[in-house]
Amino acid sequence: MTAAASSERSEPSDRSGTPNGGLSPASFVVVANRLPVDRDIDEDGNSDWRTSPGGLVTALEPVLKSRAGAWVGWVGAPDEDLEPFTHDGMEIIPVPLSGVEVRDYYEGFSNGTLWPLYHDVVAHPEFHREWWDSYLKVNRRFADRAAEIADDGAVVWIQDYQLQLVPQMLRERRPDLKIGFFLHIPFPPTELFQQLPWRREILEGLLGADLVGFQINGGAQNFTRLVRQLAHYPTQRGSIELPDGRRVLARAYPISIQTQEFYDNARLPETAKRAEEIRHELGDPKYLFLGVDRLDYTKGIYQRLRAFGELISDGLLDAEDAVFVQVANPSRERVEEYKRLRDDIERLVGRLNGELGQLGRPPINYMHSFYPRDEMAALYRAADVMVVTPLRDGMNLVAKEYIACRQADDGALVLSEFAGAARELRQAYMINPYDINQMKERMLEAATDAPRNKARRMRILRRQVFEHDIDRWATNFLDDLGSCTRSR
Ligand code: F6P
Q: 58, 88, 217, 287: which could join 322 in a potential S-S bond, CB 3.0 to 4.6 Å?
């Protein structure tokens, strides 16, 4: 048993006891850092739950409902120990985190160590032993909850980098389960991963799964290479043989979106009207550029705004004609690196608008906030050029959302070659976000290209996104997990 393992095990008979609050055992369990529900509090202070917006929840909802499913996750606030409850046919199993654990497990090890390390060290990862201890403790708690709620022989699907130790911990408690794991962010090259003082524990944690899914082939290959180099286990075409004879499969499953829903929502007459209004409010520009991101240093927001500013200051775009709308969703605001990034971007926006704008006509409209789905659909519809320029990104669903919202073969997508989505969306105007001159050229080309060139690209992009939606992603993963041979 490695350091990641717990000595206490929950036997199957424990599952009928109090921990799951009398809820029935689940034959399908999702384990994710966050729960799929948000709390709504009305004016009288009464609270209620509503299903969170987001592709993963929507894609898994039917499976959860049809298979007596449960979702194990954190409610998103510190020091809340809620009883399990049923919401819209799903059993919700909250995992509490203390304030210290939010700091050390979530902001610390997950987002101050793993996040930058897995994103090509575009920011400096910090290694702190107390963060690791917290990660270990919290992963153990998630594994305990999943072990308690899962029925005999259930399928358990663990999500993402915050919970990489859970597969092994869960297998030790419940060898009867089928365990899948999906990593939503990139899996780094071995040279970077090896920096991690707890590399062996993370590797063994993941190998507790029957199937480990990655966004792109490169991630799966990085993982199997690491298995050979660090653990010396034999691998063959993504199949890893463990010393006890068990096999683990490592494969790519590019995640996607509810394409049809995005399309239908953007198609509504009120969305079309709002899209027109937005353009009008922005001064009816000839070229409307759009960026939509979580405010994260991996997204390349600074680089793209600089490129846009230079296009105007070089005289290649006219501030009368071109507007950039940047929506930046607040994120991880207590983490130092994120505070710094926000300051840098807001200073840049202020400087560019001050230098290049006219009264009432700033060339960059920057919004540090969340927008409802309908407003986003209108923005996507209104934009002539969608600019997606991450320095590294597991997939980037914003690129796919923009394409899904097109109502005809128009518009243009500028896309970083370092986004997972670049493997599928090959007809985008591809850029290297580190090359500002190239980014400028491609942004200009995307705006001014002949309509027939744009239409040719967009037709292929739309077909790709419609044929590969998130339901297909979930089905492919779960079918493959179902085909994995049970270890016991
Ligand atoms: O991209 C990885 C991811 O964990 C997403 O699944 C999630 O939407 C995003 O980062 C936001 O993360 P957080 O839970 O830290 O707000």
A: 287
Q: 119 CB under 6 A from ligand 1? A: no
Q: How many CA atoms does the CB half-sphere of 229 hold within 13 Å?
A: 12
Pocket flag, ligand 1, residue 296 (CB < 6 Å): no
Q: What is the pTM of this model?
A: 0.93
Residue 47, Cβ neighbours under 10 Å: how many? 8
pLDDT digits (tens, 9 = 90+) for 196-235: 999 999 999 999 999 999 999 999 999 999 999 999 999 9
First to last CA, the chain: 18
Residue spans per domain, the chain: 10-255+472-483, 259-467
- Closest atom of ligand 1 to 111 CA is 15
Placement of tokens 């390349």 in the chain = 300
Active site residues: 184, 393
Residue 17: what pLDDT?
37
- Cα separation of 57 and 445, whole Å? 37
Is the sign of the CA dihedral 266, 268, 273, 274 positive or negative?
A: negative
CATH for the stretch 10-255+472-483: 3.40.50.2000
Task: Name residue 235's beta-bridge partners.
Answer: 240
Question: How far is residue 98's CA from residue 90's CA, in Å, rounded to a whole number?
Answer: 25
